[in-house]
Amino acid sequence: MEKLTEYFGCMVFGDKAMRQTLAPEIYTAFRRTVDEGLPLDPAAAESIAEAMKEWAVSKGATHYTHWFQPMTGVTAEKHDSFLTPVGDGEVIMKFSGKELISGESDASSLPSGGLRATFEARGYTAWDPTSNAFIKDNVLCIPTAFCSYGGLALDKKTPLLRSMEALDRQAVRTLRLLGDTDVKSVFPNVGAEQEYFLVDKELYDKRPDLVFTGRTLFGAMPPKGQELDDHYYGAIKQRVSEYFRELDTELWKLGIPVRTEHNEVAPSQHELAPYYCKCSVAADQNQLIMEIMQNVAKRNGLVCLLHEKPFRGVNGSGKHNNWSLCTDTGVNLLSPGDTPHKNARFLLFLCAVIKAVDEYSDLLRLSVASAGNDMRLGANEAPPAVVSMFLGDELTAVLDSIDNETPYAGMGKKQLRLGADILPRIPQDSTDRNRTSPFAFTGNKFEFRMLGSADSIACANIMINTAVADSLMAFNAELEKASDLNAALQSLIRRTYREHKRVVFNGNGYGEEWLNEAVKERGLYDLRTVPDCLPRYLDQKNIDLFARHKVFTSAEVASRCEIILENYCKHINIEARTAIGMVMRDFLPAISRFASELGGAIDTRRAADPTLANGYEDAVYRRLNELCTDIYAHNEALRTAVRRTRSVEDITERAISCRDTVLPLMDRLRALVDEAETHVAKDRWPVPTYSDLLFSKI
Ligand code: ADP
Ligand code: MG
């Protein structure tokens, strides 16, 4: 095989390919578009389109597509061929600047939450030049934003880019105030760690619940779960290691620098993390990673499960969104640094994040809300549903000393006055680790750990970016008015920390005591489920926030809220119907058949010896008959609940009905079926078991 350094990024029309194929003045014009946000003139777009097509065709591409991220949660693409007939049965390969820059698609079946009437089917895609085009399956994919005829966002990319612009505007303004004249732009860097499960494809195909819902709706726990912790960093099995190698190669070709792949806590669970990059690019890459992970799995007779909780009783899968703020001059603004001047800047940006997380914890929570993630958050394996922040003892001590106006112990006895040049020095690696915190400072970045494994990271980052931009906007207004900058900085940092330190919690986030303290004493939200948190999207303070930074209009917020609630109801509806089907067509027939087998055995034995005492067959026969009756009754009750829920008009009410009537019935039904599984002979059970899925064949 070729050397990695040679094939890395070979399927990406990135900086290297552009320098090789574009005329120098076109390349410069393009870079200015990307780096400084300047518009690209049509002639340059024409040249770029031509070069892009030539490059793509030389790599075997025959089609192109505007690749975008509608509200479905997966990516969408509509392929167009480069072929253009030129008469006499001849064709040429053509691709124009106009085709590169924008597209129109009939996208009437993609969700719009009422923003686009079905008869107004047109949606528009617009090239996002900050994210590189790439080739996938002989198709040139051009990352785009997707909006309605009236310019309303119908995707996750548009608001993400808007939130990055808002953050850029405010952060540059802050830096100017601090005397920085060099920095031209500030952007968030993101590295997303991705967890997932691998299961055998043949076994997967035999489980309708996995096929239709991505998770097991039934399944008794095997005697061995994850308690031995022997999977974590354990030896990687042959089949999985082949999968890793192929996945690496595919992702490297797409210029995605995958860094780690190790086994996770649960059996059959794994994690992958690419090296961090600009937030919008990281969002694109994460979508691609999820897609390629699934494709490569299929080629290897495996299925990659991205559901947040595919197996009950086994840790679920999440995503860690590592977020930092970087300048175009390469400075990480969340790096404590070691000079007092840098500390002032660091503390200011740190406080901006603390304020943001405290004021908009509801948005952070709802940005990760999904039916799947509801099963994970707060289940003693993932962060609780309460959003709090971990800073570590050292940093908290620094901020406490500022708050109390007492010397920072780590600094000796000197009294601290918080001017830009007399701040405490902050030790570089000053944070310890805390796995239970939803939003943890980890040295020079924040790690938001509440994302579900199937989530697009766009939503969470839209919230973080916008909320931090808002903190900075308030800071800027205050500092711009100040006559004594040092004094103003000092009081701003102190006041911000005082007002928002309730969100800082360094202890064990899994404890019941914490939940009590968080809600009762600190007044933090504990929004456990989708119907709890989604309506908060529409709170006036949130609508105002998005309007202030031009991230969402109120119509866009309302549409998103509706789409997410719709999605939640649809998911649960599909799950319930799958469960009902499996009970009627798989479980009840199997249980009943096995019970009658036992009945037959009992009759045979009694015929031979009427005095025989009751034994195995009798006990199990009786219990299975009881279970059959109970399971059938519960299944019918579930059927009724589904029908009733579907007829609830109001979407929030419908979501609540899903949560409070459908899900609990599914749980009770499952408990009965799982018990039956422990009584029925292994070879009579109609679907592969947890032991099969988690421990065999992989
Ligand atoms: P962990 O120990 O939690 O796995 P790592 O340091 O290994 O943390 O990094 C995990 C992810 O965080 C990787 O994707 C990495 O690229 C990303 N990351 C590291 N530094 C930064 C940063 N400054 N900004 C954003 N992401 C970062
Ligand atoms: Mg991590």
Q: What is the domain total for the residues?
A: 3
CATH topology of the largest domain: Creatine Kinase, Chain A, domain 2
CATH class descriptor of the largest domain: Alpha Beta
Q: Termini separation (Å)? A: 26 Å
Question: Given the structure, what is the number of helices?
Answer: 23
Small molecules bound: adenosine-5'-diphosphate, magnesium ion
Structural class: alpha+beta
Mean pLDDT: 89
Number of strands: 18
| Whole-angstrom Rg | 28 Å
Helix percentage range: 40-55%
CATH architecture of the largest domain: 2-Layer Sandwich
Give the uncertain stretches in residue-range form: 228-235, 411-422
The major pleated sheet works out as: 9 strands, mixed
**What is the CATH superfamily label of the largest domain?**
Glutamine synthetase/guanido kinase, catalytic domain
Shape: globular
Strand content: 5-15%
Describe the structure using short key phrases.
698 residues; alpha+beta; Ubiquitin-like (UB roll); Creatine Kinase, Chain A, domain 2; Four Helix Bundle (Hemerythrin (Met), subunit A); seven-stranded mixed sheet; 18 strands; 14% strand; binds adenosine-5'-diphosphate
Describe the protein in words.
It is a single chain. The chain has 698 residues and is α+β, with helices and mostly antiparallel strands. The protein has three domains: 4-154, Glutamine synthetase, N-terminal domain (Ubiquitin-like (UB roll), Roll), CATH 3.10.20.70; 163-214 and 231-411 and 434-552, Glutamine synthetase/guanido kinase, catalytic domain (Creatine Kinase, Chain A, domain 2); 569-695, Four Helix Bundle (Hemerythrin (Met), subunit A), CATH 1.20.120. It has 23 helices and 18 strands. Strands 10, 11, 12, 13, 14, 15, 16, 17 and 18 form a nine-stranded mixed β-sheet that branches. Strands 1, 2, 3, 6, 7, 8 and 9 form a seven-stranded mixed β-sheet that branches. Strands 4-5 form a two-stranded antiparallel sheet. Helix 20 packs antiparallel against helix 21. The longest helix is centred in the C-terminal third of the chain and has 55 residues, at 554-608. It is globular, with a radius of gyration of 28 Å. The two termini are 26 Å apart. The structure holds adenosine-5'-diphosphate and magnesium ion. Magnesium ion is lined by residues 193, 320, 447.
